[in-house]
Amino acid sequence: xxxxxxxxxxxxxxxxxxxxxxxxxxxxxxxxxxxxxxxxxxxxxxxxxxxxxxxxxxxxxxxxxxxxxxxxxxxxxxxxxxxxxxxxxxxxxxxxxxxxxxxxxxxxxxxxxxxxxxxxxxxxxxxxxxxxxxxxxxxxxxxxxxxxxxxxxxxxxxxxxxxxxxxxxxxxxxxxxxxxxxxxxxxxxxxxxxxxxxxxxxxxxxxxxxxxxxxxxxxxxxxxxxxxxxxxxxxxxxxxxxxxxxxxxxxxxxxxxxxxxxxxxxxxxxxxxxxxxxxxxxxxxxxxxxxxxxxxxxxxxxxxxxxxxxxxxxxxxxxxxxxxxxxxxxxxxxxxxxxxxxxxxxxxxxxxxxxxxxxxxxxxxxx
Length: 367
Ligand SMILES: Cc1ncc(COP(=O)(O)O)c(C=O)c1O
Description:
Layout: E1 33-34, H1 46-54, H2 68-78, E2 85-88, H3 90-102, E3 108-112, H4 118-125, E4 129-133, E5 135-136, E6 139-140, H5 142-147, E7 153-159, H6 171-179, E8 186-190, H7 206-211, E9 215-220, E10 233-236, H8 239-248, H9 256-267, H10 269-292, E11 296-298, E12 304-308, H11 317-326, E13 329-330, E14 332-333, E15 342-346, H12 350-365
Helix pairs in contact: 1-9, 2-9, 3-4, 10-12
Bound molecules: pyridoxal-5'-phosphate (PLP).
């Protein structure tokens, strides 16, 4: 008798290597210094926490499936039309939605070699083929991306600034990338770290979305707004793209807690400015320290640094990771990104940065 076929997922799913998030625990340490996930150093706005707490009596209710008030608040704060905003359970969900809606089997999805890993993972989950374009000095190379566009290309993802490199493309380069794409290719600009950037030539993507029909910008509340646990992100889209995403997203994809906290957070400009000022103080401070110890740093405009360690096994990235972890300091290994000589370290509180800098000085000086 012929055997029935065994249960199997769609082709390609078992080729996906699951995403491994940053470590949150260090053995024997009650409160480790957590610098592995680019979370906020200062924590959320007190108003966001109050709004979240105030919701407790209402959690038997479904959330507003259209996140109307949240989209209006985001629209007011960013000067964009709320009808063109689609909210998601983190920008991760929006990355996945874009891929499900615009790419499938036999399609290609372009990203830069050290771009955020959720692009290739979600491309494969949609059945599409991720194509990595080489970078120049760990920065998206517009010409290399454009050279890899084929008639199968459906989406180009650019994290700007990029995680894990911390590098960025100026508005002129992003416009050049867009100008080189056919109108049938969607340019997805993932500006998860936009609020940290203080460069005159940077633009998060709103201006480009306003004048093009094939550009979306993704934003998150997980980084500067410090609401990572609540899972909240948003996409600013051309009307047609918003319509498409709204057809496919699940009806209550953003929880009520995320909605009320998100409104309070996006309206709290004081908290936002504090977080920005904190990063502007400690990013250069920490970068200069690491450079003094002889570590090679990629210039970062975000809330983390990418440090390259020497090849010597006593001083390499794995040894540094273990040395820091043994002292309760959690950083991120970069092997999954093809950068095994690097560690990514988030900018934490001032005290945390001083502790990490001291530990790394000791590590680099040890015989
Ligand atoms: C570039 C980039 N995009 C998206 C995300 C996902 O963020 P969220 O928490 O909104 O899903 C991250 C998180 O690290 C990121 O670095």
